[in-house]
Write a structure and sequence with these properties.
By secondary structure, this protein is of the alpha+beta class. Among the domains are: about 120 residues, 2-Layer Sandwich (Muramoyl-pentapeptide Carboxypeptidase, domain 2), CATH 3.30.1380; about 100 residues, Muramoyl-pentapeptide Carboxypeptidase, domain 2 (2-Layer Sandwich), CATH 3.30.1380.20. About 35% of the residues lie in helices and about 25% in strands. It is built from 10 helices and 14 strands. The strands form 3 sheets. A 6-stranded antiparallel beta sheet has the order 1-2-3-10-9-8. A 4-stranded antiparallel beta sheet has the order 4-5-7-6, covered by helices on one side. A 4-stranded antiparallel beta sheet has the order 11-12-14-13. A hairpin with a 4-residue loop joins strand 9 and strand 10. The radius of gyration is 20 Å and the shape is globular.
Length: about 350
């Protein structure tokens, strides 16, 4: 059993609250880099969503997923490692062992799965690599990107050779090695830094640690590297939303303007499999709290009846997934097929209108 200091009031590991800040704008940021936006979201739907999108567009997207996550993880860890420390790693004055141990622990803390180190080499030759066994991966391609990005943060060397094999059901051996990045991906898929805008919604604070009181509804199982929503028994994870948004933007750039509609359709279909519940949008105040807790944005308005659903969210991220989710929930609630219109402003404010099909 991993021992960590937890808040006596809510039971959340104190490192989570110390590393992240929930703003009054429905946004979560990384304290070490306030331009790094984070999200606290259900993750069991990620790979099914990506598979649905891949099926709809007929084009493999795994390489894009890996590369987006590689860069996001690199940006997450880089501010935590001083340049002088990185130079000592390069010159082998310091061992990589404590860095690897820290990153694997951070993986568990953020609900990204349990990684076991198999082997690594960093001798600046053709044998350089890191190999790990991944249990309870929150997403298989994103986990591969995490491994590569963690190596890049420590070694300032791109790790573009990333492979995996399934060694038992749901358990993967993953290897990353420094072989550069495909030319067609260089300079692309870089995240945009978050610029803060003041909001008007404060989450209730835990009196013990100062983090959101609503985090008490989640259990951190550090031995298995998962965070569990006790109300739904779903796994959640702390990750950067660029994993979702940048991928869809890149697909739209490559494959055309129909990609957003396909992403929404993929999420609508997945929502109707029963992953989400109609009750999630029954209470506007609770839905506002849940969106802000997850860092998805600040819900300004929500109304729904048999004539349609209307919603507006400031500072929205993962907007296409959110649109597809509320469309699917509306169809479940009113047992109807629907059409959806949405608009996202340059500032990130989202408006959505769902109406029944005639």
């Amino acid at each position: 059993m991993i021992e960590v200091e937890r808040c006596p009031e809510c039971g959340v590991p104190k490192q989570i609250v110390e590393a992240h800040e929930w703003l009054n704008s429905g946004v979560i940021i990384l304290k070490a880099d306030p331009s790094m936006r984070m999200a606290f979201i259900e993750c069991e739907n990620l790979d099914p969503l990506y598979e649905n999108i891949q099926e709809l567009i007929g084009v493999p997207i795994e390489r894009i997923l890996i590369d987006v996550e590689r860069k996001g993880t690199r940006d997450y860890f880089s501010p935590l490692l001083p340049q002088e420390f990185k130079e000592q790693l390069k010159s082998h004055e310091l061992s990589l062992d404590p860095i690897i141990e820290g990153m694997l622990f951070n993986n568990r803390m953020n609900g990204l799965g349990y990684l076991e180190l198999v082997s690594y080499s960093s001798e600046d030759d053709e044998n350089d690599h890191i190999t790990l066994i991944n249990h309870n991966a929150y997403s298989v391609p994103l986990a591969m990107g995490d491994i590569a990005g963690g190596c890049e943060a420590a070694l300032d060397k791109e790790h573009g050779n990333i492979t995996r094999k399934e060694v038992s059901p749901g358990v993967y051996e993953m290897t990353a090695a420094p072989s550069g990045i495909p030319q067609e991906l260089k300079g692309r898929l870089e995240r945009r830094g978050y610029v803060h805008r003041e909001g008007d919604f404060e989450l209730e604070k835990c009196p013990g640690c100062g983090g959101p009181a609503a985090l008490s509804g989640f259990t951190w199982d550090l031995d298995n590297g998962v965070i569990i929503n006790t109300a739904t028994d779903r796994h959640v994870a702390i990750l950067h939303p660029s994993v979702v948004d940048s991928v869809f933007e890149e697909l739209a750039n490559e494959l055309g303007e129909t990609i957003p509609e396909l992403v929404i359709e993929a999420q609508r279909r997945f929502t109707k499999t029963g992953f989400h519940y109609v009750e999630e949008i029954e209470d506007e105040g609770e839905f506002r709290t849940q969106l802000a807790l997850r860092g998805i944005g600040n819900l300004k308005s929500l109304s729904k009846d048999e004539k349609g659903l209307r919603m507006s969210v400031d500072n929205a991220c993962m907007d296409l997934v959110l649109v597809g989710m509320v469309q699917g929930l509306y169809e479940i609630a009113f047992d109807t097929e629907s059409e959806v219109k949405w608009q996202l402003s340059e500032e990130g404010d989202l408006s959505v209108e769902v109406t029944p099909k005639n």
